[in-house]
Design brief:
This protein is α/β, with parallel strands linked by helices. The chain contains five helices and twelve strands. The strands form two sheets. Strands 1, 2, 6, 7, 8, 9, 10, 11 and 12 form a nine-stranded mixed beta sheet that branches. A three-stranded mixed beta sheet has the order 4-3-5, with no helix packed on it.
Length: about 230
């Protein structure tokens, strides 16, 4: 059974700890040769925070520690792949804690499916999300001079169990990204669904569409249960 848990607004460190409390049990189950019968997708919105993945360059954080403290922004070095990213209000963050062996897929297909969930969600608002060769996540205007990222994707996988996930900019204040080189890029812009449509979005509505699209892609592998 896979549960979708809506955490509302939660501090990054608390959500990180919650992920580990689930992920570590799943990995231990696999180490013992047991099948994971429960999977969880955590949906959350964070206060401003910067995270650095395993391969992040610290010089991609453009503000000093003192400046970040003054801005009320914390920074975490974490175990996901990828470089540096920003989380903040108005951004939908999804942390799927899944056992890919149950779904008979590898990490590349899994990442592709996460991107596809976002692409299908954006399509509800007539916004075309695309992939860019050699770069994870979902982009707008791929291959043009205005190529811009709307969703970052970065995961950790151990014994086919996953944690971390994706961050979709819905009503996000994009000035937060000026504190970093997003995902390590110095020549790419960042956008949001509100920016692309020219209006503030109904955050809860977008979240509901995201849930349905996630379920539609994965339901052939696992039954779903939604809880709050």
């Amino acid at each position: 059974m896979l549960e979708i848990r809506d955490l509302g607004r939660m501090e990054y460190e608390d959500a990180w700890n919650l992920q580990h409390s689930i992920f570590d049990v799943m990995v231990e189950n696999k180490r013992k040769g047991n099948r994971n019968s429960n999977e969880t997708v955590l949906l959350v919105e964070h206060s401003p925070v910067i995270t650095l993945g395993r391969h992040a360059r610290k010089d991609n954080v453009l503000f000093s520690s003192d400046m970040l403290v003054k801005q009320g922004v914390r920074i975490f070095e974490i175990e996901r792949g990828g470089d540096v990213t920003y989380h903040g209000p108005g951004q939908l963050v999804a942390y799927p804690l899944m056992d890919l062996e149950i779904h008979k897929m590898g990490i590349k297909k899994y990442m592709n499916m996460l991107e596809e969930v976002v692409i299908r969600t954006l399509a509800h608002y007539e916004v075309r999300g695309e992939r860019v060769e050699g770069a994870s996540g979902v982009w707008i205007g791929a291959g043009t001079e205005r190529e811009r990222k709307i969703c970052a994707v970065g995961v950790k996988c151990s014994r086919f169990c996953t944690m971390h996930g994706l961050a979709l900019n819905i009503n996000t204040d994009l000035t937060g990204f000026k504190m970093i080189n997003p995902c390590g890029f110095v020549d790419k812009d960042v956008t949001s669904l509100a920016n692309e449509t020219g209006r503030e979005m109904d955050f809860e509505e977008v979240k509901e569409i995201f849930k349905k699209e996630f379920s539609a892609l994965f339901r052939t592998h696992t039954p779903f249960q939604e809880i709050s």
